[in-house]
Amino acid sequence: DHHLSSLDLSPVKHTVYKPKTLKLKVVKEEKLPVTSPSGWVTREDPSKMKKNEVERERRLEMAIYRENLRQMLPRTKHTVKVASVVILDAAKEYCEKIQAELHE
Question: What is the pLDDT of residue 46?
Fold first, then answer.
């Protein structure tokens, strides 16, 4: 729908919520022993560590977007802890409600 393409989905700058539990933790490569399935302590592969770091950053970014969305929705804005599926369902319902109001 052409109406949806014009929506600004960028995060709201003044309401960005960064939970302390989601802060990235920098771990020195040489101090991260890993036990393999055979029981041997091995060093973590640097490329795997980089992929893990990128994934942590992605999850943090998604958490911030989800929190910003939660704060915008009437159904979820007064509740602090809300499951992702509930936030997405509330967003879908709210979009459908606004669409219906536009077509009245």
Answer: 83
Cβ burial of 66 (10 Å; 0-12, 13-18, 19+) is middle
Amino acid at position 34, single letter: V
- The helix-helix angle for 84-102 and 46-72 (nearest 10°) equals 50
Give residue-wise pLDDT tens across range 12-61. Answer: 444 445 555 555 555 555 555 566 666 665 667 888 889 999 999 999 99
- Alpha carbon 8 to its chain centroid, in Å, reads 18
| C-alpha closest to that of 72 among 85, 93, 91, 56 | 91
Q: How many CB atoms lie within 10 A of CB 69?
A: 21
Q: How many helices (H) and strands (E) does the chain have?
A: 3, 2
Across the chain, what does the average pLDDT equal? 77
Contacts of 55 (CB under 8 A, 6+ apart): none
Q: List, in sequence order, every beta strand (DSSP E) within the chain.
A: 33-35, 41-43
